[in-house]
Automatic annotation (TrEMBL):
Protein name: Stage II sporulation protein E (SpoIIE)
Gene3D superfamilies for this protein: PPM-type phosphatase domain (3.60.40.10)
InterPro entries on file: Bact_Sigma-Reg (IPR052016), PPM-type-like_dom_sf (IPR036457), PPM-type_phosphatase-like_dom (IPR001932)
Species, as recorded: Nocardioides szechwanensis
PANTHER family listed in its UniProt record: STAGE II SPORULATION PROTEIN E (PTHR43156:SF2), STAGE II SPORULATION PROTEIN E-RELATED (PTHR43156)
UniProtKB keywords: Hydrolase, Membrane, Transmembrane, Transmembrane helix
TM spans (from-to): 34-53, 65-90, 102-121
Domain PPM-type phosphatase stretches: 158-364
Pfam families with a match to the protein in the record: SpoIIE (PF07228)
Organism superkingdom: Bacteria
UniProt GO MF annotations: phosphatase activity
Amino acid sequence: MTATYDAAPPARTPRWRRSWRLFLRRGLSTESQIALVLAVVVIGITVAVAIWPTQMPFTALMLPLLVASVLLGPRTLPWFVIFLMVMLAVTLTQQVEVTARILSATLVQVAMGLVVLATSVRRTALGVAGLRGESMFIDLRDRILTQGGIPDLPPGWQVQSALKSAGGTPFAGDFVVAARRGDNLEVVVVDVSGKGAEAGTRALLLSGAFGGLLGAMPPTRFLPAANDYLLRQEWEEGFATAIHLSLDLNSGDYEIRTAGHPPAAHRTAGSGRWQVLRTEGPVLGLIPDATFTCAHGHLGKGDAVILYTDGMVEEPRRDIDLGIDRMLGQAESLLRGSFDGAATRLTEALGSPDDDRAMLVVHRP
């Protein structure tokens, strides 16, 4: 005989408790957690001012405001500022005596809150908080530098690049993109219109686009494809100059094409002299169906080729040919006997600190 028992129905969990458990299980977003912690800090400061009005400065509310302006996004930040201003009004009522100095401090804090609100409105277009937005730009800048990195080369080749931006800012309108396709090394040095940070955004976009074109297009098609890409952007200042080197790593034969860019220079080890490789081609982004002439050459043992931007050779009220002559003379002096750190040494010795400078040195030791 089997006994049966009527089990009592389980106690019904209150709805508020189920909601709370679901809230904890899903968790708060990082930004919500930060806002919650800052709100608790603000409430704590307000309570402390109410308890010790003569010992606790109510201007301490500006510390969480500063932290919020850095960490909170544009959607959360305005609400936090409004909440903090309400708490500021509460702390003002807790003061023993409202003097002119306290009123002045209050007005300063209200002004700081308005500045933070204005900043959050500007951030709305980007949609991210301060530190997160900065990290995005840093990542993009690092991608430019990564694309300018030289791929692994077979023994017997040395390729160096260096970049100096106007005023020492981390963003520049000059950049280098390199790619290797089998036994061919493809390198392009680009100078975007403008300089420094104002040209940095266009350089970020173009470096990615040119990097894709460089690895996908044959050498004869790269500059025309880059020109078509710039024309499609329809930028008001969307032009750029470029010089493209295609080098056969087996034979040492190379092709160079330029688009409104200063010419490359080839140093022959036997004579120790530099030869300027002049080619013709319009600036990228101005003329549709542009054509670009080609300079052919051969890098023998000890030879070198340098590619550079106009920041290395241009100065106000001076002909660019004089700047090229000065650069080649400096190169002969600095690189005599050793090409180690050649690109860096040349960019530090030449050009104006008020202009972006880029240099690429290809040497066959």
